[in-house]
Design goal:
The protein is mostly helical. Helices cover about 60% and strands about 10% of the residues. The protein has helices spanning about 1-10, 15-25, 30-45, 45-60, 85-120, 120-125, 145-160, and strands spanning about 65, 70-75, 130-135, 135-140. Strand 1 and strand 2 (about 70-75) form a beta hairpin. The longest helix has about 35 residues, at about 85-120. The model has no long low-confidence stretch (mean pLDDT about 90).
Length: about 180
């Protein structure tokens, strides 16, 4: 069900949710049943509905979406295509705005993490390695005895990224894994 929550956060509607849930649960899930879940989701997270509606209007009115960091993705010819393609462009606009912002934040965090790693005594002592970023996660490898310190540094780095505009701060979750498969 977690993937369905992510799907709704990126604009998955009731028909798509019904299809996914039917596969996941091994039973038919109607669009009406899925719509109740979508409606409940937006009651619980009303800011998302406002955000989605604003993204859709931005695509239609401007022909592009813009992240808080001022990067843009263009959607030319919005009014020259059918409604299905317009809806697809609007979903892509929501996704682009979210993913574009996350990508820039991870880029900024990786630069700051490297600065801390190479320009501070503790960074040089620990010797962690920034491995990669996947979607909205950074993977860092460090010696076992420095897991707590490295975790605190990574969390501080991620929370130091300033998002232009009204900012409540970035919430950061950390997991410590011992194997890639985890």
């Amino acid at each position: 069900m977690v993937s369905n929550c992510f799907g709704m956060a990126y604009g998955l509607g009731a028909p798509g949710l019904a299809d996914q849930m039917s596969l996941e649960f091994g039973r038919f899930v109607s669009v009406e049943e899925a719509q109740k879940i979508v409606d409940g989701y937006f009651v619980q997270y009303p800011g998302l509905k406002t955000f989605f509606d604003a993204c859709k209007l931005e695509v239609a009115a401007k022909g592009y979406v813009e992240t808080p960091f001022l990067s843009r993705r263009y959607f030319p010819g919005f009014y020259k295509i059918g409604r299905d393609k317009q809806a697809k462009m609007q979903r892509e606009g929501m996704n682009s705005k979210i993913q574009g912002c996350i990508a820039i934040m991870l880029d900024k965090a990786s630069v700051l993490l490297d600065q801390v790693r190479y320009d501070t005594d503790i960074g040089r002592q620990i010797g962690w390695e920034y491995v990669l970023a996947v979607h909205d996660a950074m993977y860092v490898h460090c010696p076992e005895q420095y897991v707590e310190t490295t975790s605190a540094i990574v969390k501080w780095v991620m929370q130091s990224i300033i998002i232009p505009g009204p900012n409540k701060g970035l919430e950061v979750d950390l997991d410590v894994l011992t194997r890639w498969g985890e």
